[in-house]
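Sanity check

After download, print the first record. It should look like this:
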Amino acid sequence: MGLAALACLAIPSRAAASPGADGTRNLSMGNATRGSSTGTDAAIINPAGLSYAQQFEIEPLYQFNLQDQTHGLGVFVSDSLNSPRIALALGYIFMNGTPRIRYNGPLSDREQLKLAHFGHEVSGVLSVTAVQNWLYIGVKPKWQYVSLRYHDDDGIAHDYVPKHNAFGLDAAVAINFLDWARLSVVGYNLFGPNPPARTEDPVTEIEGIATDDDPEFNDTNLRPVSDYPRSLGHGLAIFPLHNPNFSLNVDATYDFTSYRETQDQWTRITVNAGGEFIAGPVPIRLGGWWDSRGRGNGDDRGYVSAGLGFIRPATLGGVGVDFGVGFAQQVTGSIPRELDTVLSINLGLRLRPDL
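Expected structure tokens:
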């Protein structure tokens, strides 16, 4: 049995399966974990990886983006213990953020319009071990809802962009090479992608908002990429010690939605790298990624990330712990006041019932 994710909205420049639903380990390792994530983190980033390890886990998490004041709260329950061939997860995602648009008001004073970025996601994960210790296949059907709204000068609520209410699907395949390396390919939002909130076209008017003759709308705080882009990710994890305690990871993603219409079929690419070393009960995680975004290098972004944790496996009939903290920090690509900083924390309980 299982449950998968109540997560969050966070960095507006990642190509992820859910908007901000990184998972603490994934975020700490630069989201370069498609080949090595298990349990909760696999349910987020690679549904096929749910079968990598046998465990039953209940894991709440919290994530916060300082740039657009977006909070996320999540809970996961994943189960790969009941069957050597099938692993399951289910979940719910909640997200809430307050991006702002700056403009010149009726008296030419610089004002700001606060928007509410709100959403839900209900998802399930099914992972199948097609060939024992060799080939894994996973799917993640989901219902996803996102709205971006504001109140006008009379207090009436408006949609800034049309609500996104759709069925989505992620699908993945993973290959294990004798426990020395794993290769994974994941298709995200094969159904149900949505366009970004911000495009190249300048904003000239917002319904119900009074401005002066030259409002000079600044919408750079809005997401320039889709919340749910149709995208492809692949990852390679290498295990030099022939066990999960030390892994080196390299991933890449291809976003076919965010800039497809506005920049003549442009595909946004991210390149991710990360590593993890587990020293006793303490995992040490480092990573980073580069985000190409639109055409040219003017809007490219670079990030670094890191994290620590504490893991105590569950004994037979007992309870274990999976605690982690992590962060990601933008280091290149925009002026300092626009830099992204994202914080994440999780506290998971690992159970091993004596049935």
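If your output differs, re-run the checksum step. Summary of this record's structure: The mean pLDDT is 89.
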